[in-house]
Amino acid sequence: xxxxxxxxxxxxxFTTADSVINWGRKSALWPETFGIACCAIExxxxxxxxxxxxxLGIIFRPSPRQSDVMVIAGTVTKKFASVVxxxxxxxxxxxxxxxxxxxxxxxxxxxxxAVVQGSELIVPVDVHVPGxxxxxxxxxxxxLKLQEKIKNxxxxxxxx
Length: 160
What we know:
There is one protein chain. The protein has one domain: Rossmann fold (3-Layer(aba) Sandwich). It has helices spanning 2-5, 17-26, 39-46, 78-90, 102-106, 136-151, and strands spanning 69-73, 96-100, 127-129. β2, α5 and β3 form a beta-alpha-beta unit. α2 (17-26) runs antiparallel to α6 (136-151) and α3 crosses α6. It is globular, with a radius of gyration of 19 Å. The chain is mainly alpha-helical. The protein is built from 6 helices and 3 strands; from the N terminus they run αααβαβαβα.
């Protein structure tokens, strides 16, 4: 017992509850396995061995009830918009959305009556990842931007 007594003399850890909660949230993002069009191939390759999102604590989940991040990867049509909204509503709080690709961000080259001109018209988008289709490293950059946003979030609000 004498060895452990003086091992950590006068060490005190000061932090806030916000930083501990946000650290846990940003370090274990679980995106939903959900792809609509060609951007989904790039999203899938981001989770494979070459890019390995697991090292960042990002693990794709098969169900919206197990996910906290939705990656909208591809063209959202007006017919499919209700499905996107339903899946978003089934995700537990807190939840975040990454809009991946030009078609998901702005409708892309499909300026027609059948394509939603931006996924933020359906669900609130936190991070946009541009490109057609964006490369896997661009999606990783989007996840890092989302982690920065989560890190700076205020969890506990003062009630005055």
